[in-house]
Amino acid sequence: MANEDVGDGLKQVMRVYPQGVTVVTTSALDGPKGITVSSFTSVSLDPPLVLISIARGSQIHDVFRYAKAFAVNFLADDQRSVSDRFAGRTGAQDRFSGLRFKPGLSGSPVIEGVRAVIECSTWRVHEGGDHSLILGEVVAARALSSKKPLVYYAQQYTSTEASDRPAPPSDIGW
User: Fold this and answer.
1) In the chain, where are the structural domains located?
2) What is the domain class of 18-158 according to CATH?
3) What pairs with residue 133 in β-bridges?
4) CA 54 to CA 127: how far, in whole Å?
5) Beta-bridge mates of residue 152
6) SS3 state of residue 12
């Protein structure tokens, strides 16, 4: 199978995988910067590490590639416009214009109204194909609201419904 066919298949499969929506932010010399990121995951608890993946072709790539710190803002269901703004879908030149935020511990912007935020110092950067894999060491993690999460699934925004069943005990294994 040609690489192009595999790439198309991967895109197709990833469209059926629901992902939480985050906006990753940092503070740069010329002001705050941010980008919508769905390629985010927790990596380790000791040390506490998370990973974000940013396309090397992105205009904002180098800002994050060389940033000393960043914040992962977990968007709520009522923040679809925030996601679109930071994904570059609105045409806004200054993505922070008119947006309420405050600097976190590292100076990286924490967007008002998000469900949670994880603040990181950049730990390592690795190249991963056409993306940079940026590992951040968590310096702070806070849940900020109980609003429903914003989810991206099948190339559209959605959310979750509350379950009427309790979460399984954490000691259940496969």
Assistant:
1) 18-158
2) mainly beta
3) 53, 126
4) 10
5) 19, 157
6) helix
Q: Between the CA of residue 66 and those of 29, 52, 56, 93, 162, what are the distances in Å? A: 12, 13, 12, 21, 39
Residue type, 65: R
Q: CB count, 10 Å around CB of 90? A: 12
Backbone angles phi, psi at 58, to 5 degrees: -70, 140
Does residue 136 contact residue 65 with C-beta atoms inside 8 Å?
Answer: no
Q: Give the chain's end-to-end CA distance (angstroms, integer).
A: 33
Q: What's the predicted TM-score (pTM) here?
A: 0.87
Contact in structure between 60 and 36 (CB atoms under 8 Å): no
Residue-wise pLDDT tens digits, 18-64: 889 999 999 999 999 999 998 899 999 999 999 999 999 999 999 99
Sequence-ordered list of residues with C-beta below 8 angstroms from that of 74, at least 6 positions apart, any chain: 20, 21, 22, 114, 115, 116, 117, 118, 149
For the range 120-126, what are the long-range contacts, defined as Cβ-Cβ under 8 Å and sequence gap of 24 or more? 120/50, 120/69, 120/70, 120/71, 120/72, 121/68, 121/69, 122/67, 122/68, 122/69, 122/70, 123/47, 123/49, 125/65
Find, among 84, 72, 58, 74, the residue nearest to 135 by Cα.
72
Residue-wise DSSP of 72-94: EEE-BGGGHHHHHHHTT-S--SS
